[in-house]
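Hey L., structure's done. Input below.
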Amino acid sequence: MERLDKHFEKLTKASFARYGFAYGELMERWPDIVGEMLARHCEPERIKWPRGGGELAQKLGGTLVIRAEPGRGLDLQYQSHRIIERINQFYGYGAVTSVKVMQGHVSTSKPLKNKDNPLDSKTEKALETSLESIADEKLKQALHRLGAGALAKRPSSPHNK
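Output:
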């Protein structure tokens, strides 16, 4: 029995190459390359190679165009050197020399959930006690989510990884 990915590569190679991606591996492995936190808010759009085309242009390195959610562009610009380093490590050569960030809707955007950092029972009880006097149920739920997010233990900074 043959695996489908063998045929998928052949079918998609021309399409992905048009946008500067080799077999779509960069798009497929984006969360592994840049990290889950960044991947939630951005996605690679294409790699623009220098004019002249061909293998020589690819050896000179291209510009990675990233689409980011509004408000996340500055964070990506600050981390662009890390993104370039990780992508070049992924490809095994200096495939990308610069990053251009465009703001727009990201299809892979997923809201952050607090399930990995639950509140301890003492903090949860204190939060519920402080919200008891609120009559509007929707407002109470929204404030509970906000409080839980603010009081939850935070993982270490992605810059330290």
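Residues 4-103 form a domain with the GMP Synthetase; Chain A, domain 3 fold (CATH 3.30.300). The chain has nine helices and three strands.

-- N.
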